[in-house]
Amino acid sequence: MQSDQTRRRFLGVIGTAGIVGLAGCSGGGDTGGEGTETDTDGETTATAESMETESGSETTRLSWHAGGTGGTYFPLSNEFKTVVEENTEFSLNVQSTGASVENVGSLADGSADFALIQNDIAFFAKNGTGIDAFDGNPINNLRGVATLYPETITVVTLADSDISTLSDLSGKTINTGDLGSGTQVNANQILEAVGITDFTEQNAGFSQASEQLANGDIDAAFVVGGWPVGAIEDLATTNDVEIVPIEGENRQTVKDAASWFADDTIPAGTYSGVDEATETIAVQAMIATRTGVDAGTVETVTAALFENVDALTIKTEFISTGSAQDGMSIELHEGATAFFEN
User: Fold this and answer.
1) How far from 264 is each of 75, 159, 226, 283, CA to CA, in Å?
2) Domain limits at 115?
3) 315: alpha, beta or left, given left = phi > 0 and alpha = psi -120 to 50?
4) Longest dimension (CA), the chain
5) Alpha-carbon span 62 to 59, nearest angstrom
6) Could you tell me which residues belong to the region Disordered (predicted)?
7) What is the pTM of this model?
8) What tens digit of pLDDT does each residue of 163-204 get?
9) Are residues 125 and 74 in the same domain?
10) CATH number for the domain including 219?
C-alpha cells in the first residue's frame, strides 16, 4: 500500500507538465512498447515503457540496472523495486549486469533509466578521465541521485593458501572482477599502487569467482560490495576462507594513490570462520540516472526510496536522507535536487 506522503508527492510532481512528459515516454501508444525521445540537450535516449495494470490504470516501467547476482547491488535493487512499486505508479525492471562501468554505458545510451554504480566510477565517467573506458570521452548525460553505503574492498582467498598480505599476491592468479566492472577497476588500482605487476588476471563475477576459488582455479579474488557479500557467505559455508587485510602502509599507499578510497573494517564474524575484524578500504555505492529521465520521475522514485527505508532489509544502517550526499562525486539530477532540498 502506498504511503500517503509519497503518493501525494507523486501526484504533486507529475502535474500537467509531468503527465505530458510521461505520455511522451510511453512511446508505443496503447500497446506500450519502448520508444525514444530527445531531451533539451538534443540527446536521443530510450524511454520508459508504458503498460496497463489489471485495474485499468496506466503505470510506467523504468529500467534499473544493478550488478551480478552474487553481490549486493542485485538483491538491494530488487528491494528497491518492491518499495517503488508499492509506493508509486512506476514499475522497475531490474537487470543483472556487469555493474558500474557497464551500467554507466547503459545510462549513456539510454537503455537504463537508473543504475547502481560506484562513486569513483561516476567521477571518472562524468569527467572523461581515470580509466581507459572514459579517457577523453566524458559521459555528459550522467547525473547523481544519492549515495547509499560503503562498498567494501574484500580480498578473499582460502585459508590454506600462502596469502596473508597484499604482497603475497605477487605471482598469483587473481580474479579482479567482471570485465567492465568497478571491481576490476579498483582491483587494478590497488595492485598497481602497491607495486604488484606480476600476476595472472581472471575476470568473472562474484559467484563464479567463488567457484574458481573452491575449485583451485584461482588463488584470490577481489570483491567490491557491502558486507556481507552473498557469494563470499556461500563460499565460507563450504570452505575455510581468509580475508586478506588492506592495512598499515599498504592502505595508506593505496589511499595516497586514489583519494576516493576510505578506511573500512569488515567486522569479526561477518563470514563463517573469520573470527577477527579485518582492516580494508571502501568506495561508495550510489544511485545514478541520466538527463533524459523526467525530473518528476526522479523525484518520485527518490522520495519513495528514502521515505520508506524502513521497508528495506539491506544496508539500512547506512541509507538515509542525512547521508545521501556523502561522497557524491557528480552533479545531481534536478529531480533528486528537488527532493533533497525540500
Assistant:
1) 22, 22, 11, 9
2) 4-149+286-340
3) left
4) 65
5) 10
6) 24-61
7) 0.73
8) 999 999 999 999 999 887 889 989 999 999 999 999 999 999
9) yes
10) 3.40.190.10
